[in-house]
Design a protein that fits this description.
The structure is a homodimer of 150-residue chains. Chain A has 150 residues and is α+β, with helices and mostly antiparallel strands. Helices cover 38% and strands 17% of the residues of chain A. Chain A has 6 helices and 5 strands; from the N terminus they run H-H-H-H-E-E-H-H-E-E-E. A two-stranded antiparallel ribbon of chain A has the order 1-2. Strand 4 of chain A pairs antiparallel with strand 4 of chain B, so a sheet runs across the interface. The structure holds a DNA duplex (30 and 30 nucleotides).
Chain lengths: 150, 150
Amino acid sequence: MRRTRFDDAPCPIARTVDLIGDWWTPIVLREAFRGRRRFDEFQQALSLSRSVLTQRLARLVDEGLLVRRLYEERPPRHEYVLTEKGRAFYPVLAAMWRWGSDWLWEEGSEPPVELYDRESGRPVRPRLVDENTGKPIDVREVRVGARREA
Amino acid sequence: MRRTRFDDAPCPIARTVDLIGDWWTPIVLREAFRGRRRFDEFQQALSLSRSVLTQRLARLVDEGLLVRRLYEERPPRHEYVLTEKGRAFYPVLAAMWRWGSDWLWEEGSEPPVELYDRESGRPVRPRLVDENTGKPIDVREVRVGARREA
DNA sequence: CTCACTGAGTTCGATCGTCGAACCCAATGA
DNA sequence: TCATTGGGTTCGACGATCGAACTCAGTGAG
């Protein structure tokens, strides 16, 4: 049986999951944010099979998160660079980073990978707030719905 | 070949992806945040196969995002309820929601599912900021590293 | 007492996705 | 001429996902 698709679901979460809901795609994106661009850079950094990497990059290019760009004529060499849409995805990874580092580490085994402000060098702790009010988003204070009811 | 596991990777993103990096787990969590608790509630809402739902719920219970609780003695009935760890996952879904609604919708076809503040009824737009400074997180201003270098 | 029904799963076989290894090809450099 | 490198594609084995069918305990109707 084929995988159930969510790409036309009415829910933005479902559509997003359809796109990145596998084990490699988010990691490939993470590497893109780290500045990797070339096929072999990705492949060596992640040690995933070439066929899977090819598929993931193609999907990301297809969906407009990456562009495949010729950066050398002879011999022809390509690189995969984040688009605006791709860069906009960063908060999702940052939210995962935050949750993972808060909840998936045993005491005493600090996560070796952290985020720092490039300028100040100080650690950055991503947190989700409401853009309008600036207040942190608490599950119990948010309602999901098709439209405002009252 | 077995799927490559990331659950002991040094990167919080990788570990998080190992846990929720499939198509159903994030959607099951979304439904949990919507207040679903019983097996059949999930199954009917998502129309996924029972076997997959069983596996997903078991994994989420295993990892401590949900608890399986007896809420009725005779006949014995169970429900799956979010734990603190599970509730803490909300920002990841909210970030996906935001990105999906910003980037995966054509003009003119508004996402029918939105987020509202329970009290004010006003729409909520999740945004990621640095907890320390309150500044929005921009990719180019954040560096990933094992430890601070200077 | 029997039958149908419900909640909560497990089992089954088919199909799809993932994996590493091997192969391919063009351009370059020794 | 031959090996190497970048950037893939092809292949076959195996693991994951699917819907459908089955299970089992309790319950309520007749």
